[in-house]
Amino acid sequence: EIVMTQSPATLSVSPGERATLSCRASQSVLSDLAWYQQKPGQAPRLLIYGASNRATGIPARFSGSGSGTEFTLSISSLQSEDFAVYYCQHYNNWPPYTFGQGTKLELK
Amino acid sequence: EVQLLESGGGLVQPGGSLRLSCAASGFTFSTYAMTWVRQAPGKGLEWVSAISGRGGNTYYADSVKGRSTISRDNSKNTLYLQMNSLRAEDTALYYCAKALPSTLAIFDSWGQGTLVTVSS
Questions:
Q1: Between residues 22 and 41 of chain B, which touch chain A (CB distance below 8 Å)?
Q2: Chain B residue closest in CA terms to A53
Q3: Which residue, A81, A82, B48, B76, shows the most beta carbons closer than 10 Å to its own?
Q4: Cβ–Cβ gap A43/B100 under 8 Å
Q5: Size of interface A-B (CB pairs under 8 A)
Q6: B115 inside 8 A of chain A by CB
Q7: How many Cβ atoms are within 10 Å of A81's Cβ, its own excluded?
């Protein structure tokens, strides 16, 4: 099973600043990596797939990068609605399609 | 508009069974893979099971393998998860999710979840 590790667990950032979240896979997942956003009491929302492709309707301030084992989600100029928990998930090859443990992005 | 509505959750004793359902609308159900993802209270997301569009291929996490069966009725636009021999650690909010076209595990639409509580 591929283990996904996210860092940091919590990130405190001020509105208008840039946030950078990291995700590491225990073995290469090529570019088979997705990012999801989850707000309290809501279902997750797909942000990024294929490591760098924005999902439909996702603002351009969200960007993803990386391949192999190291991935980054960047959010430029944070808006109030961006404070949430973010999960990475691999979908390389066979299941299980594991998620990272999440990074909580909080208001500084 | 894609809509996914889960049902079937509830309180069940350890060792009991439940069948979760997910009613889908707003898309051609039979052409998309579907999945179940769960979230224990205050915890992260855990992929549980997936099924191909026509239902011929199914996949399970080790944590539920042998105890759960995913299925779908494309004539009713409904996804199911039969869960047996339930344990306390199965307590979670269970989401159904739709996959992107031609993929198995990129989840672009999610329901609001149904809560399963396993307790005596």
A1: 37
A2: B106
A3: B48
A4: no
A5: 57
A6: no
A7: 9
Mean pLDDT of B20-44: 97
Contact assessment for residue B45 and residue A89, using Cβ atoms and an 8 Å cutoff: yes
Tell me, yes or no, if B92 comes closer than 8 A to chain A by beta carbon. Answer: no
**CA-based nearest distance B116→chain A, Å:** 16
Sequential pLDDT tens for chain A (108 residues)? 999 999 999 999 999 999 999 999 999 999 999 999 999 999 999 999 999 999 999 999 999 999 999 999 999 999 999 999 999 999 998 789 999 999 999 998
| A46 neighbors B107 (Cβ within 8 angstroms) | yes
| 3-state secondary structure at position B89 | helix
Integer Cα distance of B74 and B53 in angstroms:
8
Residues in B closer than 8 angstroms to A98, CB to CB, are: 47
List A48's β-bridge partners, or say none: A35, A54
Q: What is the dihedral of CA A71, A54, B60, B51, to 10 degrees?
A: -160
Question: Average of pLDDT values for B63-79?
Answer: 97
Per-residue pLDDT reduced to its tens digit, B75-101: 999 999 999 999 999 999 999 999 999
3-state secondary structure of A49: strand
Answer whether A96 sits within 8 Å of B47, measured CB to CB: yes
- Tell which residue, B104, B95, B108, has the closest CA to residue B27: B108
d(CA B39, CA A7) in angstroms, rounded, equals 20
